[in-house]
What does this fold into?
Amino acid sequence: MREGRTVLATALACVVAGCQSGGAPLADLSGDALARAQTLAPKDGRLAGLYAQSCKACHTVADTGAPLAGDRAAWEARWAKGLPALVQSTVGGLNGMPAGGQCFACTPADYEALIRFLAGREQA
It folds into this structure.
């Protein structure tokens, strides 16, 4: 039991450490943007599960430095780099985000869909 708690605490510490970013400042840290980010989820059920497991812990907490989910203003400069560049950054890791964004089950198509969702550009 104690060993399980230690493993869980270590895993949570790794997730929080992975959230911290030295990247661009966030565009909007208002309560509205934060509240909105915390209620969003991808429309697709499988992507929603991947998002909950891998992305949500950082992209719904303002203090992590990660751009909030659905905050188009915060994502604008990043989005301007192009989707292939964003996928490459995700797969390789960037600033505080670990390689793969800690999504061990994500395919390249999943990364693209999750980035679109996070950037507020989810396809219908």
Q: What stands out?
A: The chain has seven helices and no strands. Residues 58 and 124 are 24 Å apart (CA to CA).
